[in-house]
């Protein structure tokens, strides 16, 4: 019954094709009427009467509205830092990023956590180049220093079955 004629003896597919053809015909007729009246759609935007300045009631572009909101609230730097933290792997490289994580940014100082003291030492050695790279992303003078801490293993356990003396490898207890 899928090929049975619809209302008026036409199949639904035939009816849709006729409707689309009719719509194209009416659109062409409307365009021709507009040309005769000299009312073609503009190819360039209309010029504003007030010299191009936007009125407060005019709709704003989304990106501009977001930038204005961030500026009004003083969130520009926080958003930029969050973007850098989110792209940490891309900025510092996959190997360093797999062993480190940025934790905070305050007063020009980025605090980085390393998963071992060896990686903490590596980040300390790379601190100057990290500051330079982060300032490329955030703007000169935004990051002043990089502070690093190793793994937080907590206090060393005490007890009777403990060998007193040296602490052992520094990598074990930060």
Automatic annotation (TrEMBL):
Region span, Disordered: 1-59, 146-174
Species: Acrocarpospora corrugata
Biased composition (Gly residues): 156-174
Lineage: superkingdom: Bacteria
Basic and acidic residues bias spans: 23-36
Name of the featured protein: UPF0232 protein
InterPro entries, per database record: DciA-like (IPR007922)
């Amino acid at each position: 019954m899928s090929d049975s004629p619809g209302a008026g003896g036409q199949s639904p597919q035939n009816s849709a094709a006729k409707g689309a053809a009719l719509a194209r015909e009416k659109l062409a007729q409307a365009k021709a009427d507009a040309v005769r009246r000299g009312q073609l759609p503009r190819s360039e935007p209309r010029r504003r009467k007030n010299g191009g300045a936007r009125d407060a009631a005019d709709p704003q572009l989304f990106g501009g509205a977001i930038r204005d909101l961030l500026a009004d609230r003083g969130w520009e730097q926080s958003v930029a830092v969050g973007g850098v933290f989110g792209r940490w792997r891309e900025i510092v490289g996959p190997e360093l990023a797999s062993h480190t994580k940025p934790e905070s940014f305050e007063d020009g100082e980025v605090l980085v956590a390393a998963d071992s003291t060896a990686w903490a030492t590596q980040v300390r050695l790379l601190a100057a180049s990290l500051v330079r790279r982060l300032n490329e992303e955030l703007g000169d003078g935004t990051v002043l220093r990089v502070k690093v801490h190793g793994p937080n293993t907590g206090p060393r356990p005490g007890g009777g079955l403990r060998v007193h003396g040296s602490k052992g490898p520094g990598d074990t207890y930060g």
